[in-house]
Amino acid sequence: MIGYVTLGTNDLQKACAFYDALAKELDTPRMMEFDTFVAWGKPGGQAGIAATKPYDGNSATVGNGVMVALEAKDKEQVHRLYDIALAHGGTCEGKPGPRGDNFYAAYFRDPDGNKLNAFLMTGPLG
C-alpha cells in the first residue's frame, strides 16, 4: 500500500499553487508544511502527495517513466483536474478521454515537469 508520493520541485511556491488547486478539487487539505516540503492528504485516508526541494540541495529532476495517478470521482472531475492543472502552469500530455474500454484519463505535467494523470475506472478490468 502506498502511503504517499513525493515529487521534487525547484520552486516550492509555484508547486504549492499547482497542487493546492488540484487538492482543492479533490477535497484534500495540506497535511504537513515545512520550509522545503508540503504534503497534501488526509491522515488515515488514501495515499497523499508531497512537493519538496531535494534534501541534497541539488536541482530537482524528473523521473523518466514515473507518473502519479489521481483518482477522480467521475469523468467531469477528470476534465476539471486537467483544466486546473493547465491553468496553474501544467502542460498537456494527453487530453481527457477514454483509454481502452474501461479507463478514462487525462495526462499532464506539473510546472517542474513531473507527469501526472487524473483517471476513472469505468468498468471492470479484463
Automatic annotation (TrEMBL):
Q: Which InterPro entries match?
A: Glyas_Bleomycin-R_OHBP_Dase, Glyas_Fos-R_dOase_dom, VOC_core
The species this protein was found in: Glycocaulis albus
- Give the Gene3D superfamilies listed for this entry: 2,3-Dihydroxybiphenyl 1,2-Dioxygenase, domain 1 (3.10.180.10)
Please give the name of this protein.
Glyoxalase
Q: Which parts of the sequence belong to the VOC domain?
A: 1-121
Under Pfam families, the record lists: Glyoxalase (PF00903)
